[in-house]
Amino acid sequence: MSTAGSTGVLPPVDAAFLVSHPAPLVALVGGAGLFPYGPGTLGALVGIPLGLALQMAPAVVALALVAAAFAFGVWACGVTAMRSGVHDHPAIVFDETWAMAAVIAFSPPGLRAVVVGFLAFRFFDIVKPWPIGHIDQNVAAGFGIMLDDAVAAVFALALVVGLSRLGWL
């Protein structure tokens, strides 16, 4: 999927765009996506306290909320991508926020798990090993925006749980 227009310049996504429709307000996580340096990293950081709150919920409730937020993100990110004219504009960070919250929600408790989960998720989200990169390039619309981060979250969570079971966290 293309991430820039034919000129290579991203269309303007700014505060006016943020409040132009409910979907960008969600997809840009209330403005976190407008941060000029590493908006995806900031979006992921926003997900940490959400994930910590989900850790306190019964697993079935956390799973239901994560699933509902995924569906909501498909809508918000898809509408926002369409309105911006870019498949996955860098300002769209709900996918990172959601994915990081999901990683933390199902990780073992503790600061080490949070740090390793964050670093692992950002690694998989940025490097995009197979199949993450394949999904990023070939799955369209809001579902594609959310799905590549969902797979990166599964990889990160598997690493955290594996390290925990080995006694390294």
Task: Itemize the secondary structure elements and their pairings.
Elements: H1 15-18, H2 22-27, H3 39-55, H4 59-84, H5 94-105, H6 111-127, H7 132-138, H8 141-165
Helix pairs in contact: 3-5, 4-5, 4-8, 5-6, 5-8, 6-8, 7-8
Describe the structure.
The protein is globular. It is 67% helix and 0% strand. It is an all-alpha fold. The chain starts with 14 loop residues before the first helix and ends with a helix. The protein has helices spanning 15-18, 22-27, 39-55, 59-84, 94-105, 111-127, 132-138, 141-165. The model is unreliable at 1-6 (pLDDT under 50). It is built from 8 helices and no strands. Helix 7 (132-138) runs antiparallel to helix 8 (141-165).
Radius of gyration: 16 Å
Structural class: mainly alpha
Question: How far do the termini sit from each other?
Answer: 37 Å
Helical content band: 55-70%
Element string (H = helix, E = strand)? HHHHHHHH
- Which spans have pLDDT < 50 for at least 5 consecutive residues? 1-6
The percent range for strand residues is under 5%
The largest sheet is:
none
- Overall pLDDT metric: 94
Number of strands: 0
Shape: globular
| Individual helix count | 8
Short description:
The protein has helices at residues 15-18, 22-27, 39-55, 59-84, 94-105, 111-127, 132-138, 141-165. With 169 residues, the protein is mostly helical.
Question: Which short descriptors sum up this protein?
Answer:
169 residues; mainly alpha; globular; disordered N terminus
